[in-house]
Amino acid sequence: xxxxxxxxxxxxxxxxxxxxxxxxxxxxxxxxxxxxxxxxxxxxxxxxxxxxxxxxxxxxxxxxxxxxxxxxxxxxxxxxxxxxxxxxxxxxxxxxxxxxxxxxxxxxxxxxxxxxxxxxxxxxxxxxxxxxxxxxxxxxxxxxxxxxxxxxxxxxxxxxxxxxxxxxxxxxxxxxxxxxxxxxxxxxxxxxxxxxxxxx
Length: 200
Hints:
9 helices, mainly alpha
């Protein structure tokens, strides 16, 4: 009996508590072996995983149980690779939709001999470049906010996130989050967020 008790005691001593941060790090490291997943993809997935773990814990699961359930929900590496490959392909097509007309425009600028026509083409080209730069800045800002846990991961936004952004004073990002959730126009999203701000 004493031997069994001592053995059980040693097992209890050797049992280390579950470390969520370390578990997520190992999970990311495993996914990082895939060339199809970029560093940004891994950060987005980790953000999704943390949000899912928090929700499952709120539903009553332990930290370890919530982590295991959340990883199962996100899917295996192959499924995640296919998901992000589709996203990357769509992003490439959207970029081409801007770049190809821009190249055509610059070609027209070089070929144009009409001074007034050339001026308007240059103005249009300048506006197009500014729009592309602004879109790039917004994407970088959203990625930074997601890494900081301020903005929800792609496809994971909820009204609770919109309300949290409003309370924190991030009304612009609250509007963006609302539009992503409800797929509505800018005016409708502004009205909804303004109503939340007034109700607060």
